[in-house]
Amino acid sequence: MEKSDGQDSPLVEQFIARKADILFCPTWKTATHKEEEQEEEEEEDAAEPYAIMPPMELFMEVSYEERRTMLYRDLEKGDILVGRINNIREYGFFLTLLCTAGGLRRDIEDLELLCVTYEKFPPLAAMMILSAVKDIDRYQEKITVSLQQAALSPGLEHIKLGVFPREELPIHYSRSLRAAADSRETYECILKSCHGYHNPSVVEYLLEKVGVSDTQPPSMMRGLQR
Prior knowledge:
By secondary structure, the chain is of the alpha+beta class. Helices cover 31% and strands 18% of the residues.
């Protein structure tokens, strides 16, 4: 167990000791496989069984610097980025990043981030490109992307990289644009306008998606385990 500031945490240790049989019970494997989650994403975007919302930071006062720092912290190799070509060179081209897709959902157009790919590709200016993170330098804040399927994280192989029409932008990004353009588009308004919000089976769907049983709730209280 990790210690903070070199100090022991006796209360935490005592809690873990008392609840060890619950914490480490094999039946507590509630998380679904990442592959299964990613395979469901295309169906979610099409049918929207639950409300697909813009990122929460859009509705909060999160500073530019903090959002930028958090993006570089959370972004990993194989993640998917959506960008617009803004500069074509002999060795490759540069993208202005708009948002993330395929798991990590962030809207980053206002951060004015650039990434580069050194692969040969016959793009045109202003084309929309779906690419995978090939390398990320968090200290220099440099991102290199690839259009090769092999660069995708496991579970994302079904997503086709390359040029795609603007009409196929991720739902969360499209709704973010709407919220940014109209101050009346509050979180509650967008939520209630989503088709998935009115799905009568949305609670059961989300419980199943995260692997939580409504008959055997994963609780630290032994009484609820029964």
